[in-house]
Amino acid sequence: MDIVMPELGGIDAAQLMREINPNAKIIFATGYDLNESIEEGVDQHEEIVLHKPYSIIQLSQTLYEIFNA
């Protein structure tokens, strides 16, 4: 899920999704450096954040780790 989106940002969307399913697995993606305003909503120790541009190998490894943990 992209962190910065025009209508509903990824952090807010993820929060709504987790209200429905607290165990939802979410991968955030961003083309920005995580600045202070974005960092407030993303706990980098708990959340997975891929920085654009990322490779298919990075995405595949991340998916594997999430679903095989």
UniProtKB/TrEMBL annotation:
Superkingdom, natural source: Bacteria
A Pfam family recorded for this sequence: Response_reg
Cleaved signal peptide residues: none
InterPro entries with a match to the protein in the record: CheY-like_superfamily, Sig_transdc_resp-reg_receiver
Biological process, per Gene Ontology: phosphorelay signal transduction system
Residue positions, PTM 4-aspartylphosphate: 2
rRNA processing found in the keyword field: no
Keywords: Phosphoprotein
Start and end residues of each Response regulatory domain: 1-67
Phosphoprotein in keyword set: yes
Protein name (Swiss-Prot/TrEMBL): Chemotaxis protein CheY
Species annotation: Mariprofundus micogutta
